[in-house]
Amino acid sequence: MDARKTSREILLIIILSCLLGVAVNISLLRRFVAGEFRQSFIDEREYAGIRFISLAEAEDLFARKIQTGEGAVFIDSRSRQDFAAGHIPGALNVPVGELKNERKTPSGEALSAALSFPVDQVLVVYCEGGDCQTSVALATLIHERGFTDIRILSGGWEEWVAAGLPEEGSS
Question: Which residue in the list 127, 137, 142, 153 is annotated as catalytic?
Answer without folding.
Answer: 127
